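Section 4.2 – Deliverable D4.2 (structural model, holo form)

The reporting period included a commitment to supply a predicted holo structure for the target in complex with adenine. Inputs used:
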Amino acid sequence: MTLPTLLRAMPKAELHVHIEGTLEPELIFRLAERNGVVLPYASVEALRAAYAFSDLQSFLDIYYAGASVLLKEADFFEMAWAYFERAAADGVVHAELFFDPQTHTARGVAMETVITGLHRACQRAHAELGISASLILCFLRHLSEEDAFATLEAALPYRHLFIGVGLDSSERGHPPEKFARVFARCRELGLHLVAHAGEEGPAEYVETALDLLKVERVDHGVRSLDKPALVARLAAERVPLTVCPLSNVKLCVYSDMAAHRLPELLAAGVCVTVNSDDPAYFGGYLLDNYRAVFDAHPALGRDAAYALAANSLEASFVPAEQKARWKRDLDAVFAAA
Ligand SMILES: Nc1ncnc2[nH]cnc12
Ligand SMILES: [Zn+2]
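Output (structure tokens):
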């Protein structure tokens, strides 16, 4: 089996994908028309042409504008279902989807509409595609602690429909400690905890996400490389990093894929995983991310492919027995390859 074929065939989990970041321009235009939303772009082509980002904020401005077409439960369902069909084609067996409720509730969309639409797509993905899927509610860090608490309160009637909380949006100037009390409450509620840290922000944000928010995984975390002692800690404590290679290049964290430092993290023994972040905006879904990394780093071979897939299964929030089953499937694929 060639390496590109192996990358597709190996069972993998996707642990860092913002479902609003899977909205393709064609679907944005279709939903805009259906819902009577006026977009500041004349066509699909004009919108796509605007996808040239200089940093995280320049992307977020367009990402939130795109999400404004989502109004009805069916819109959330369609968006997530389209993602699952692509994920299945990429060999994804498990996905943990981030969603940003504040982006929607601020426009008058009910929490119930958002969560039930996404949940129905998760159920159908399991039934028809064999993908297990769960939801992680993200707080927008550019908004206040008070807003995050109100969002948590509004989501509690649907507590059984999401497994954890995360922290995303503009990183610089919004350190993890701003949300320490919200995360402490979520911890009491038994929710899994993750946070974006060390994407654009400093390595110290990774440390405070671990020490103050008590997150179980760090989203991105690539700036940890600025602090060798932190990389050693991540490896020793087996804290997973959900790295998003195409995102990092599109948002100018690295100048190109050859400059991406994922191989160093892997070599240091960190539990690195590969993810797509916002695939409709960054030029590729999960398999595109794997292939881009392996194309740009020819020193990475089958061992690295195995490690990345195994890490993604290990880092997922599923019961140990399920992880063990997928690990056996992974071993079988490599034995036959
Ligand atoms: N890469 C990213 N970083 C922070 N917030 C996000 N929201 C969607 N994608 C994001
Ligand atoms: Zn992200």
